[in-house]
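Standup notes, protein team

Yesterday: finished cleaning the Virgibacillus profundi set.
Today: Single-stranded-DNA-specific exonuclease RecJ structure.
Blockers: none.

Input for Single-stranded-DNA-specific exonuclease RecJ:
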Amino acid sequence: MLESKANWKYTKQQDNTVQWMDDSIDLSPVIKELLLQRGITTEGAVSEFLAPDINKLHNPKELDSIDIATERVHKAIEKQEKILIYGDYDADGVSSTTVMLKTILELGADCDFYIPNRFTEGYGPNEEAFRQAFENGFRLIITVDTGIASVHEAEVAKQLGIDLIITDHHEPQESLPDAYAILHPKCSVNYPFRELAGVGVAFKFAESLLGYFPKHLLEFAAIGTIADLVPLVNENRILAFYGLHALSISNNQGIKALKRICKIEGNVTEEDVGFLIGPRINAVGRLQNAELAVELLMTDDEMEAAEIADEINRLNEERKQIVSGIVKEAEKMVQTGEKSGVIIVAKEGWNEGVLGIVASRLVRKFDRPAIVLAVKKETSEVKGSARSIPAFDLFNNCMKIRNLFTHFGGHSQAAGMTFPLENVNVIQEKLNEIINEQLTEDDFKQVIEINDSISVTDINEKLVNDINKLAPFGMKNPKPIFQIKDIPASARQIGSNQNHLKLQFRQDNVSLEGIGFGMGELYTYISPETPISVAGELGINEWNGNRKAQIIMQDMKIDEWQLFDHRGKKNLDISPFINPEKRNVVLSNDGIEMTAIAEQIVYNTDRSTLSEIDVLYIFDLPADLTHLKEIIQVTKPVNIYACYYVENSLYLTAFPSREEFKWFYSLLLKQRVLDLKTEMTNIMQARGWDKDRIIFISKVFFELGFVKIENGVIHLVPKPLKKDLQESSLYQERIMKAENEKILYYSTYAELKKWFTNQMNYLAVKQV
């Protein structure tokens, strides 16, 4: 058995009684099921979902204060007031800044943009930047993707005589800033959709300012919407759908340069944005000032765009190396520290810009919310990022101890924060108390939502193409996850470090390849002829012009007990097979020499001292099969490793026949006394026996009282009691050992597994 790393939850239809209202819809049963799970049951709803209608975007006028904000901007342009666009340093902030800057410039404004430096200024508006803007003549500031928590900075702007328009989408806190206008879906009672990204809000404002639908800004809206991981439903789905098309045909020099660097050809997908374009834009603000990324999207010069794109790509490679180094240090801290509900790690010198990525890696590895902090000794503060697990709302729970933070903001699964160094321990204690009150141990595991169980024979290129009609995928519209349960035809580790797993499934002349990136260590937990359940996304593997459906595995589990056959391997090292999270026990005759990687018991261990275990490693054959049966029944292992080696096989050595026993006894009757030291060779040559056979026959006769043996000399006992050979325990023991070898050593894998299964009736009880 092998437990899954994540909790597998199976998606149910929103209403099991709902059926298709129009059977004429020409879609496969799998796609229909996926649509039903999304609450889509009619032809009209299907059409709207598969082909989003750009006319279904909501009217920007429904955002509170948008008319006031629009009028103020037009007034500033009319009076030639200087306008400052104040953005954020991530991909959403960069694309929001670009949308607003292009809009204001199109209207003929005197404007500029500003993005704070993550390292020297931190997140969001700051007083010094506002004062500098005032000194530079700016009297109107428009924030994009930031500002909803900037109560103090709004007051500073008001005192300076700067009108502040805030456009944001982050969670509002207890008090709202006293700004000239706030454009925020969650602060707008009548706005129908509350989950826009920062760039979505900026796009709405742009539409209001321009007086027409800004189709030319859709490509930037797609970048921020997808990269910021907002739910891809409703307006976000429409913006992403049309924005991806705009990215595919873009004439923007910066985007064309980015696509070249990322080797993106043809249609741009949400994965291209999420894994290639977005990370590179984010990398700029993580390592230096993000203004370079805005300059890339604003330039009309092809050569300048190429140079900036190359520099951004270099920064992204540098970012990867920095992340790798910090992750190694952070993982070591976690592994050597006490296990807690919430991970908090801090160190001086860590790059603040990548701590969110590091936190995400820790969450995936340890199944715990993680806060990763850079220590600033000069101010006695720590600053960093946090990521959470699905079962724990990081934002709301941190808000319960908001007084311990100097700055805090974010949402349920991610946050940024600054607080005094002396508060690290108390925040750790408080969050541990909160999370342990709310969650059970099982809640900490990551969750995989499985949409359907599917057969290998159902998976083909057409099905994958049909599934892709549900794109763009993202939060609230995740890429479907399927479960396959089958016995793999082959399994192997691949990659330069053997850290990936490749499985091959075959069913009715249909083959399917499964690839599990980073799952190479699970190879040792796969046993022959055992069904494996894998969960993953379906995709297309294209190689040398050949296209074939595959499953990209995310998790794996094995529900049946497993037998791992290592028979005949002398001095087997079991350390690669040890799962430290399980109870591992080694069984032998007299104990064996090995490192303390598993508990040890022997066949004559008092059964009353034994308890249930997970894995049993058998290193010696038992003298009596009953002993092995008893130990299995008491310890109840769910996995067994057959690790025994037989050097001098009794099963392969012919057992002396009754005629051979009679011949040897006749010889004794003739000679009365037989000195084996002198006669052994003669007997071996005469009968073709080996030395062991002669000694064995002699010992059986001795045990039965037919002879006496002194110093290798056999004396016949006159008139011994009549006994059958079967009465000799030595005779019986040899028969038993040979039979044991036949059952446990020379059997086929299937025969051996069947024998063990017959001893494991407790498994049926466990499964019930």
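Follow-up from PR in the comments: DSSP finds 24 helices and 27 strands in the chain.
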